[in-house]
Structure formats: C-alpha cells, structure tokens
Amino acid sequence: MKRFRKITAVVLAAVCAALLLTACGGGSSKEASSIDVSALADELNKDTIKNDTLTETSSDMLSSIYFFKDGQVTESKAYMSSGSTADEICVVKCRDDATTNDVEQLFQSRVQKQSDLYATYKAEESDKLKKAIIKSTGSYTVLVVCDDYDKANEILSKYGF
Q1: Model-level pTM?
Q2: Where are the beta strands (DSSP E) in the chain?
Q3: Looking at the predicted structure, is the pLDDT value of residue 46 above 70?
Q4: Average pLDDT rounded to a whole number, residues 1-9
Q5: I need a labelling partner for 11 at 20 to 30 A (CA). Which of 27, 47, 48, 131 fits?
Q6: Distance in Å from the first CA to the final CA of the chain
Q7: How far apart are the C-alpha atoms of 102 and 15, rounded to whole Å?
C-alpha cells in the first residue's frame, strides 16, 4: 500500500510538472508566426490615415530610410507621406526575435529625427510623432504614425501586438 501511494505521488507530481511546462508555452510566438506583413500594413494605411494619401515605399529603400543592416529584415511593407504630414507605416519581419530590439531603436531614432524636422515648420505634425506607436511581437516590429491611434492600437492588438 505504501509503495502504491509513493508511485501515485510521483506520477501525480510528473503530470503536474508537465502541465505547468506546457501552460508556460504561451501563444504569442504562434500568433506572431502567422502575421501577414502586407495585410497588416494595408489595413493600418486604410483605416488609420485620414488627412493624407500615403505611397507604398519600395522595400529596397527602407534600409536607407531606417538604416536597417543587411539581413536584419526579411520581409517588409511600408507607406510614407509625401512630406505634407508625418504619417508613415512600416511593418517588418526581423531575422529573429533578438533583432527586434535593434529595429525598435532604429524606429525610435527615425521618429526623433522626424519630430525635430517637423518642429521647425509644422508643429502639429511634431506633436503627432510624440504619439508614434512602436511595438514588437515575436520577430515582427511595427512603426505607426497616423491620425487615429485608437484604431491603430485596435488593429495591432488583433494581430497580436
């Protein structure tokens, strides 16, 4: 009888440990692995930009705009303003999860430079840049400067950000 209790206790402890480990697996990386970069960028452009028409920017140009290093970004889609507003959207898939921190810093640098620029001639756009959204999930990172930040956050949360 004692032996049965010991075996039962060991089996029960093993089952509990297995359940705890699988519960910590989290779903964010699974959600992040299914993000459609193009669809997210298109939806943000369509639903959050009200006072400008943004133009899709070639992925070849993004490294000169954001200063991405070779191989940091494996997939991207971006929309830029002609300069009349500070609006811009950039969605990227980074090489790996660790690279997202570097890309976030590059986005923050971009926002700061744009804010300094717009402060000299269009202060309301500089104020818009202070609310810029820079978020990452898994190996994906986004930058959003738009008219409707509530809608942008709603869209981003739908994609797991």
Answers
A1: 0.79
A2: 55-57, 73-80, 88-94, 133-137, 140-145
A3: yes
A4: 42
A5: 27
A6: 53
A7: 40
In whole numbers, what is the pLDDT of the chain averaged over residues? 84
Q: With 0-12 CB in 10 A as exposed, 13-18 as middle and 19+ as buried, what is 77?
A: buried
Q: What is the Cα–Cα distance from 124 to 52, expressed in whole angstroms?
A: 14
**Identity (one letter) of the amino acid at 142?**
V
* Contact present, 100 and 89 (Cβ < 8 Å): no
Q: Shortest CA distance to 94 belongs to which of 64, 60, 132, 137?
A: 137
Q: Which helix (H) or strand (E) holds 49?
A: none
69's CB contacts (< 8 A; 6+ apart) are 63, 102
Poorest-confidence range of 26-30, 32-36, 102-106, 122-126?
Answer: 26-30
